[in-house]
Amino acid sequence: MNSPRPPGLPVLRRPVMIVAFGGWNDAGDSATGAVEHLALTWEATDLQEIDGEEFYDFASTRPTIAQVDGVTRRIQWPSTSVSYATLPDSERDVVFVLGPEPNLRWRTFSTQLVDLAEALGVELVVMLGALLADTPHTRPVPVSGSAETKSAATRFGLSPSKYEGPTGITGVLQDAFVQAGVPSISLWAAVPHYIAHPPNPKAVLALLDRLEAVIEVSIDTGPLAEQAQQWQEAVDEMMSDDDDMAAYVRELEETEDAASSDDEGALTEVDGDTLAAEFERYLRRRNEGQ
């Protein structure tokens, strides 16, 4: 049963909710970069902000100081923003959820977003993520997809999720939507682990290409194709000065070629071992930095 519509909410047409969180879910800032691109391109309107006081440990996810007119300084507190865009050339509208991964009270946090989605009449939730992987930067960015139910997997041509192990807020939130009866799927881009520093426009572009096919809405990628080409050329140049690194990339290419299946280009399930290993590496890096 849908939650009652709180006053002041917009009336949206067959809305899809697109969600991305910074942190271990977001290698190369690729997932959040994709949502930021869409929100800017489609001129999203702010809907609400989920106050970070209840959900963030400010010693781990720290506030930042920003200059205002070069004179005063302002504290920017971690929070999760919700915005929406009406698309005149499409039969559906879009809701965006964007913010750092919460540190605290994930169940309460998820309940708030589920209630909002139900009040807005959201028909589909797409969780975007990116993980570090043994993939060469010279090849198309692999994008894996999974769904929590067989019906959603069949509808969107994805694999039913079989992953077991550690998860982030994306996994918790996806499960909360499924339990509430809101179809939810995930798309993950694989970012080369040896070039983890953001931004990664090639991975952003790959996520948007897959997303376009899933939600059946045309996406203007603007300058991303050119930026992705410039990014790859810069990495190629860097690799040309390092024989060991160039040899390693060739090894990754050979491994990927050997593992290629007949279903090239199809969305496959997120590799659970890779995801768990990346989660553990992220925790170690965060603990070492404290």
TrEMBL record:
Region entry Disordered, spans: 253-272
InterPro entries per the UniProt record, alphabetical: Proteasome_assmbl_chaperone_2, PSMG2_sf, Rv2714-like
One Pfam family here: PAC2
Protein's name in the database: PAC2 family protein
